[in-house]
Amino acid sequence: MQRNTYISTAAAVVLMVGGPVAAAAAATSGAAGTPSAATVAARADVDATGAAEAAVKHYPGTVVSLDKDGAVWHVDVIGKNGKHAELTVDTRSGKVFTEHADGDDDGDNAQEKKQLLAAKVNAQKAVKAALAAHPGQVRSVDWDDDDNGGARYWDVEIQPKGGGATKHVHVDATTGKATVSSSDSDSDSDSDDDNDNDNDS
Question: How is 48-81 classified by DSSP, letter by letter?
Answer without folding.
Answer: HHHHHHHHHHHS-EEEEEEEEETTEEEEEEEETT
